[in-house]
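C-ALPHA CELLS:
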Amino acid sequence: MNRLGLLVLLTVAALAHGIQYPCGGSCGLRAPQPDYYPMTYSTGNEAYDFGMTRIVGGGAVVRNVKQVVVHPYYKRADFSYDIALLQLDGSVQCSAYIQLACLADPALEVSKLNNCWIAGWGSTTARCEFQLTQGSRGRLQEAKVQLINSQLCNSSDWYAGKVHPYNLCAGYPQGAIDACQGDSGGPLMCKDNTAEYWWVVGITSWGEGCARPKQPGIYISTRHFYHWIDYNMRAYHTAESAS
C-alpha cells in the first residue's frame, strides 16, 4: 500500500554546528493551544477536530518544495530505505500550531518508550477495513499506538520477513487503530520517559491494508537514518552559505 502525506519539521544535532532554526533551538515541546480556538479534542485513543482549520487571519501556512533528496537506496518495490528530505522555498515560523520535532538519535532506546502517537490527514476508513478515527478526510487526526516487537512483526503469520531492520512496527496486535492511505510521511511520536519533550521515532511508510489484525503500520526508524539526515542538512547549509 502506497501512502502519501505529511511533512514534519525536524531538528538534529547539526544545531550544535551553527545551523539556526526558527524556534530558537527548542524542539519536541507541545505549545499551549489558544483557549478561543481549539484545534483538536482527544478522548481515549481518538482525536476529534471541532474547530475550523482555516479562518481569516489564522489557519494555514503554505510553502512550496524547492528540492527533494531521496535516499539513494530507495526501492518502491519493497519500500526499502523509504525516506526523503524536502527543502522548502521559505522558512516556517513557529506558532501555537507549528513546532519543531526532536529527531531520535542513535543512542535513544526507542523500544523502552511507551507513550506513542501517530498523526496524519489521511483516510479514516479503508474500504471494508476498520475505522481509524471519527471525522473526515482533510482533518488532522491522531491516535495512540503501541510499539510492537519487530521480531514478532516479522514472524510467519504477521509480515513474514517483509519488515526491514530499519523499520518499526506500531499499532495493536488485534488491529482496529492504524495509519492509512494519505498518512505516509507523517510522524510516529513518542514522549520521553524522563522529560516533557517528544521524539519523532518513525515516519509512516507502508502496511497491508489498514488496521488489520497482525498487520500493524510499518514505519521508517529515524534513529537509523540520523547521520544521513544530519549530513544532508549540513551539506545544504554549506551550499547555501557559499552561494
In short: The CA atoms of residues 61 and 92 lie 8 Å apart. Residues 1-7, 11-20, 34-57, 128-136 have pLDDT under 50 and may be disordered. The first helix runs from residue 150 to 153. The chain is about 10% helix and 25% strand.
